[in-house]
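Duplicate of earlier report; thioredoxin-dependent peroxiredoxin input re-posted below.
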Amino acid sequence: MPDVNDIAPDFTLPRAGGGDVTLSALRGRPVVLFFYPRDDTPGCTKESIGFSEHLQSFAEAGAQVFGISKDTLARHEKFAAKHGLAVPLLSDAESHVCEDYGVWKEKVNYGKRYMGIERSTFLIDGDGRIARVWRKVRVPGHVEEVLQAVRAL
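Output:
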């Protein structure tokens, strides 16, 4: 499980709307990766809207932001259109990136055990090192906290 000061695991994932995103190609500026469980669920929607609303502020601070879940590109596109999302969404349908970042976890809901994404955010500096990690994220105030951390880099 990667932690602060580790080199962020590299990946190439397809992006909703077309194209691929390769993490190592983004070196030179900070990158925020927020992993979320599923499109169009209440917490995930609030988080994605929050990052979308602050996307310009992240850009002004020099950072790029990406949301990652296991949902398909078609589902991401429908989710983005329904909620007017501006934040780029990446599809990790095979869970490889989720596993590399240690966010694919056993969860329990109403006594039922299952595997799913633990809501987590990683701030990666311009050198490709993990600068901050937020695990088991609670959505209220999270986007603002991440933005503060980006500005402090």
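The chain has five helices and nine strands.

Merging into the original ticket.
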